Amino acid sequence: MPQRGTQERTREARSGQQPPSGWYDRLVELSGGPERFRGRVLPGVALALVAVLGLTAWAVTTRSGSNGGGFVAVAPATTSAPTEDAAAGPDQAAAPTRAKARPAATTGAWPTGVNSGDTITDANAFARFRGRPNDVVVLFTARDSWSSITDPWIGKSPEKFANFPGTWSISYPLFPDPAVGTPKSQLPQWSADHMAACVQHQYDGYFRQIGAWLNSQPNRANSFVRIGWEFNGDWFSWQATDPDTYKQCFHNEAAALLSVDPHARIDWTVNAHTTLPNSTHGDPFRAYPGDDVVDVIGVDTYDQYPPSPTVSAFDEQCGMPSPTPGLCTVIAFASKHRKLFSVPEWGVVGKDSGAGRAGAAGGDNPTYIAQMAATFRQYNSMLAYEAYYNNSEPNNVRSSLANPQLQPRAARAYQSLWN
Length: 419
Description:
8-stranded parallel beta barrel; 8 strands; globular; GH; transmembrane helix; membrane; hydrolase; mannan endo-1,4-beta-mannosidase activity
């Protein structure tokens, strides 16, 4: 269950500098006197100023298309626009040092896909259910060893997505999990030990191997790569109990991968409505690794903790600020950093799930489906991709819309909005 934090986020003021005194007189002197300055220098300055203003206007103008251009913050479909306070992290956004990433290719209104298991058969069944091909499949490596991480099952055969015509989004842990059966209470120490090794660059070589593996897969070098996703929960071994250590570990591994495969699109994914495991730190945005190694800022979000039975409830949870940020707040953070955003996992949550039994799940909720569609449509110019988490496992979210259909009203809403 997500833990709510109370720590407020800090902001830094940015101040400008005054130009050096006497600069005009010095420029006149260097140009050879007032007449030469007015006759030769001023016209050149004017032309340069016009060029700069023209380029500035071009850069801030919203552009449509599939290149992710036009990061103008606009209001979500159902909420007021996230404020600067909602978007800002503890550090000011730096200018991106990587070329702006492109969203996944699509023929629809926005790039969409599915997270439905380990076979192309399951993914294709979901595509048939909704009447629209999958642009993206979200996949997960095994986590039991470095060998299963660096040389995963993905792409081993047509059934394992080798011939999938869309884009892969692959989820990689920062390091392997402990042995099966390890008590959850031991995860923080496991995380701390491996984070320390990662910070010392001991795992860079493995991520260079991942980059080489991506290059070896036909037309997969530009896959989305989710490294250490949902780090702000306490359920994964790479939980960010120390955000600074997590941030450096992520940076080291992403930089190592990109040194071999510079075309990979690195996706940094938070879990919605969840503080960092250590409530002393709270705000998950404190763990942002930096614009130079992140292409996409993602969020996994489900209709739980809190659920959205009404439009107003959706608006409220979408705009929840840090340290428990909602989808709309993450979109604003991505816009501030001039990045695409993604929603690699999302879905309704069954009443027969753990959250449902706790009274914190929306169940068969077409309102949630409709409001997610409206948000994707509103922000389609900066949406890298979204993927429905079609799950029927008894101890999971029970979100399945097809094969089997556990949530029929939500399924009908999804079909009507995605076909």
